[in-house]
Amino acid sequence: MSRYSVCLAALGLLISTSTAMTEDVPDALSVEWQGQHPCQKLYEDAEIRAIRCTLAPGAVHIRHSHPGTLVYTISGGKAKVQDDKGTREGQPKTGGFNNGPPTSWHEVTNVGDTTLSFLVIEKKYEPVTNQ
After folding, report:
1. Nearest-CA neighbor of 92 among 65, 74, 113?
2. pTM
């Protein structure tokens, strides 16, 4: 097998694995950690879904996806976020607001000593796309 063929085969595997990973990532309501769902649906219609996500100290909102979002921090603290850009820590502030793009996947861990709580408005009209 030529070096060119090996490179093409490897590239094909990477593309198919990346696409499969995106397609296999559940939405925020579908995942659970230690038998608990960190998010509860508050409202849903054809355009949006409103959810409240609550993470006690040490809790993890395992790998999940979102369409575009509006996020209001009800109760802030310290969080670790892992996504396709790497791992970083942040301190969401109570009363903070973010208008975010679609997220193909991320995982959020409460690494602080206070409960994190967020109101998340998912914009169904801004879906995650497989690129």
Report:
1. 74
2. 0.80
E strand or H helix at 123: strand 116-123
pLDDT in tens, 41-62: 999 999 999 999 999 999 999 9
Question: Got the DSSP string for 42-79?
Answer: EEE-SSEEEEEEEE-TT-EEEEEEESEEEEEEEE---E
| Type of residue found at 9 | A
Question: Can you give the C-alpha Rg of the chain in angstroms?
Answer: 17
Nearest alpha-carbon partner for 53 in 22, 86, 76, 23: 76
Mean pLDDT over 71-87 rounds to 97
What are the C-alpha distances in Å from 123 to residues 13, 51, 82, 126, 130?
32, 11, 22, 6, 17
CATH topology of domain 26-123: Jelly Rolls (2.60.120)
